[in-house]
Write a structure and sequence with these properties.
Elements (H helix, E strand, L loop, with lengths): L14 E2 L5 E2 L2 H12 L4 H8 L4 H12 L3 E9 L5 E9 L5
Antiparallel strand pairs: 1-2, 3-4
Helix pairs in contact: 1-3
Length: 96
């Protein structure tokens, strides 16, 4: 039987490095990426950070840290010609 932990670390729980240094969480990396690149998609998050649950990390940033993020729906065709939809997340500019 597999034990399920409901108290798993969230976005604001910092991990310590091998020598006691603070390592960036996925939330930290995603926030920095959005600031530098302008936006992020689930595929970007997977490629850059190995993050399989970008929507959950965006929720953490919005609800636990108060970061203002907008979501835009996009679509493209996959290699089989089927339309697939995904989200693109970006920071809300000051004054918006």
């Amino acid at each position: 039987m597999v034990e399920i932990r409901l108290d798993a670390p969230r976005c604001d729980t910092y991990l310590s490095g091998l020598q006691g240094e603070r390592m960036d969480t996925q939330c930290d990396m995603i926030l920095r990426y959005m600031k530098e690149e302008g936006s992020i998609t689930p595929l970007d998050a997977l490629r850059e950070f190995g993050c399989l649950r970008l929507g959950a990390r965006i929720w953490d940033l919005k609800n636990l840290r108060g970061v203002r993020i907008k979501t835009e729906g996009e679509k493209t065709k996959n290699k089989y010609g089927k339309v697939v939809r995904y989200a693109r997340y970006s920071l809300v500019a000051e004054g918006e």
